Amino acid sequence: MGNDGGSIPTRRELVKDAAKEPSTTQIKETQNEKLEYYWSHCAISQKLLSPPIVSDSTGNLYNKDAVLEKLLEASKRSQDENVASNDRTSGTINSLRDVVEVQFGIEEEDAARNSKSGALRLVCPVSGKRLGPGVKAVYLVPCGHAFAESAVREMPGEHCLQCNETYSADNVIPILPTSTTDKDRLRERASKLQSADLTHSLKKAPSSGKKRKKAQSNKKGERTDGADITAGPDIPPIEEKAVSPSKVIRNQGTASLTAKVLAEQEDRNKRRKMAPNENLKTLFSSSNGATGKQSDFMTRGFTIPTEAKR
Question: I want to staple 139 with a disulfide (CB 3.0 to 4.6 A). Which of 146, 151, 223, 258 is the partner?
Answer without folding.
Answer: 146
